[in-house]
Amino acid sequence: FRDNEEDLVEYSAKANFKVLGRRLGKDMKAAASRIESLSPDEIRSLMEGAVLSVDIDGVETKELDLTAEGVEVRRSEKSGLKVLNEGSLTVALDPKITPELLAEGLVRDMVRGIQSLRKDTGLDVTDRITVHADADQNIRDAVSSFEEFLMGETLSESFEWKPLAAEDEGVQAVAVGDSEVLISVARIG
Fold it and tell me: SS3 for 132?
């Protein structure tokens, strides 16, 4: 959460030629240049409804009372952010994936795969299960960081890594990230 939208976007302003052209005539080019040089604070005050008096050096120096109607405000997202804006609400997402987020995503894929296998084998969603899996080290590392979450979400009483083959009975290959994990589940009791 930010108090200032300027932390997320950069403002630029361009003259609204339809509104200002008739009024300024030959001074329009100078006014357009001055409007493009408006500071973020000046642009924000226009957006909030203020009237801004600016000097323009056209054929003769004159003062222009500028309103939001005479300016087209453009927002561009700051580097590294994905930004959406609607009215006074601006939402920015940082799309950088940290190792922790990647590991959590992989484990969520595992949970999805285990739950799908549970359904395919006719187990009830409330059945306690034991899980056996075989995966590359990347997946194993992710699961070790989030094993408690995985076991809680899948109602697993135990989780064990062991060599499995896709042709083994009850084993299913599950896509986890860019990898494939072999998983088997069994009801306890």
Answer: strand
